[in-house]
Amino acid sequence: MFANLYLSNMILPASFYTRKDVVRVAKDLLGKVLVTNFEGQYTAGMIVETEAYAGASDKASHAFGNRRTRRTEVMYREGGAAYVYLIYGIHHLFNVVTHLAEVPHAVLVRAVEPLEGIDIMMQRRRMEVLKPNLTSGPGALSQALGIYTKHTGYSLLGPDIYIEDRGIKIKPKEIAAVTRVGVAYAQEDALLPYRFYVRDNKYVSKGKGL
DNA sequence: CAAACGATTTTCT
DNA sequence: GAAAATCGTTTGG
Question: Which domains does chain A have, with CATH numbers?
Fold first, then answer.
């Protein structure tokens, strides 16, 4: 269809996020383009690594057992909001809230490949030369895109933060599924293959056990 | 109100 | 490869 030419640069609709299979959403996010546009600073990167967090039944999730706190509250919203929080007192981690309201599922975005506004990203990261670690790793990409904890609860339907489908297709064979990073405390749930990344992409974070 | 901890990154050896 | 840096959130008294 010719219409596809016009649809190929679309902001993902709420229906993308409200699906009930968080693992599916995590995989589908690979190849999509995360855009931030704060105060005229336009930056964009293709998502190359994600992790699924399956809420109440997932020991690795902040919302395990339907735990509700001021921090986790945003995960109980309907899919399509940003969940951003601070880890290790230093790093801001960007997550996408999925599923319907009252079901606290989320996808952590762990790495993107920079596409636009690379100069702005390097400025934010205080880097002189372009290296993969500009945006490889959840804390790094958040800093590069200018995302901080104050953005938690922001809508992913725009205008400040949104995710586009630019028609990039990642073939199933290009997607690797492995265990998540930094969740050893989650016991048996730490073994779940909930981390997904694009094979051979140099912006995928090192993590542990690659 | 005090204390422990962590979906990490960087730096140094 | 190992360790330090660093602070908001959560939890317990």
Answer: 3-198 (3.10.300.10)
Query: Nearest protein residue to C7's C1' (by CA)?
Result: A89
pTM of whole model > 0.90? yes
The single residue listed with the structure tokens 């995928």 is A204
Say which residues have a Cβ less than 8 Å from residue A22's Cβ, sequence separation at least 6: A52, A53, A54, A55, A98, A99, A105, A106, A107
* Residues whose beta carbon sits under 7 Å from strand B: A 51, 53, 60-62, 83, 86-91, 93, 95, 106, 108, 125, 133, 137-140, 180-183, 185, 205, 207
pLDDT at A209: 41
In whole angstroms, give the CA distance from residue A141 to residue A198: 16
Task: State phi, psi for A24 to the nearest 5 degrees.
Answer: -65, -45
